[in-house]
Amino acid sequence: MNNQDKLDQIIQKQHGTVLSSDLDLYEIPRVYLQMMVAEGKLERVDRGVYVSIDAIEDEMFSMQTKYSKLVFSHETALYLHGLTDRTPFMYSASVPSGYKVVESVAERFKIYYIKKDLHELGVETVQSSHGNPVKTYNIERTICDLIRSRNRIDGQILNEALKRFVKLKSADLSILMDYARKLKIDTVLKHYLEVLL
Fold it and tell me: Rounded to whole angstroms, how far apart are CA atoms 114 and 96?
C-alpha cells in the first residue's frame, strides 16, 4: 500500500478528519497533506487538523487527539450518553489540576479542573456524533460532576439528567455512591436521590 492509499484510508476511518500527527504515526511524509490541500481535497481547519472537503470537522475528536488529557464531561458527557436533548453549543471538558489549557481551547470549551488522582475516575470511550472514538466520563461520574458543579450548571439540565439516570436499566447506584464519596458529594447526592426515588 502506498502513502497516498494509507492517507486515504486514515481519512475514511476517521470520517473525514486527519491530523498531522496521524501521518507521523503511520510514517507518511507530511508533503502528502500539502498535496491534498493544493488539490482541493483537504482543508486545513486548525493547526495540525485537516478535513476532507466533503466532510464536517469532528471537533471533539480532533481536540482530544491534540490534547490527550482532555476528557469530555458535564453537559457534553450527558449529550454523548443521550441523557439530554440539548446539543451543547460549548463543549465541557475536564483536565487535571495544573494542566495548561491553551487559550484557543479555553475560549471554545468550558474547562473544569479536577485533582490528578480523580481525573481518570470513570473514563470510558464512546463514539462522537461523527463516529470517532472520544473519551468521556461514564454516566455515574457525569451525574457526580453535575452535582459538584451545580452552581455552574443550569438547574433544569441537572434535574432532567437525574430523572433520566434513575430510569436507566444500566445505571449503577453502588458505583454512583462510590464516586460520590471519592468526590466528597455523597450527602448532597443522597438529598437529590431522596427527592427522586
Answer: 5
Domain boundaries along the sequence of the chain: 3-57, 68-196
Q: How far is CA 78 from the centre of its chain?
A: 10
Whole-number Cα distances in Å, 39 to 35, 43, 53, 173: 6, 10, 11, 54
CA distances (Å), origin 25, targets 6, 8, 53: 11, 15, 23
Q: 134-193 pLDDT, tens per residue?
A: 999 999 999 999 999 999 888 899 989 999 998 999 989 999 999 999 999 999 999 988
CA nearest 93: which of 107, 78, 79, 112?
A: 112
Residue 78 has pLDDT above 90, yes or no: yes
Rounded CA gap, 24 and 89, in Å?
A: 32
**Can you read off the three cell numbers belonging to residue 163?**
430523572
Residues 6+ apart with CB under 8 A from 192: 147, 162
Report helix, strand and coil shares of the chain as percent, to nearest 5: 50, 20, 35
User: Could you give the CA distance from residue 81 to residue 138 in angstroms, rounded to a whole number?
Assistant: 8
